[in-house]
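Recap quiz, item 2
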Amino acid sequence: MGLSVIYEYELASFYKELVEEYLKNKNEEFEKLERAMNESDFTTIKIIGHNLAGTGGSYGLTSLTDIGDRMESSAEESNLEECKNQINEYRQFLDTVKVSYK
Amino acid sequence: MSELKKIVMIDDEKAIQILAKMALEKVAGFEVTVFDSGAQALSEIKNVIPDLILLDVIMPEMEGPEVFVELRKIEELNKVPIFFMTGKNGEDEIKLLLATGVNDIVNKPFDPLKLGAQIKEKYDGVIGDL
């Protein structure tokens, strides 16, 4: 992505431990996604995108639902270039996201 | 009217299992049993007999609509409402899911702080018709 996007969220205290664990798991899962991208494994990319779409917003991280939705659609179309764009965007999200709690 | 207390959730995604269970138990006060797959649910659900079943649509091996058909064959679950939980929220997709005979749909993503109230409202809406 050419533009610098700031992923910043202020969430209810209910989410505190949940979101930290969720992001830790998503960082661990990212290797699997990169491997799928390198192997043009669209089935795995689609499943990961679908799960991201369903879970991201539920954890209050709405951008992840958007990224996951687009990743799932790109994988359904076997569009590797678009998948790469969304996977890069996802990496940027994981590297920059800041969450505070109220 | 049967009061909603016990919920079975069938979903393969750990992140949803953890969040929904916490939301429905800690926030809404329900008792939740989670199954990772349709096969596990079909084998073990008779030990639970819930008031409501929340069923994920897209799962590996056995998808939600197929699990729904098998659940409806279990006599003890005849009058138990089943709601699909889905991230496929397009109008056509929702129509197709409702055409299976499922009682209602819960959309993903969901707000965990409101999920219990949302489900109870839907439950109260369908329970009188069963």
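Strands of chain B lie at 6-10, 31-35, 52-56, 82-86, 104-107.
Chain B touches chain A through 18 residues (CB under 8 Å).
End of item.
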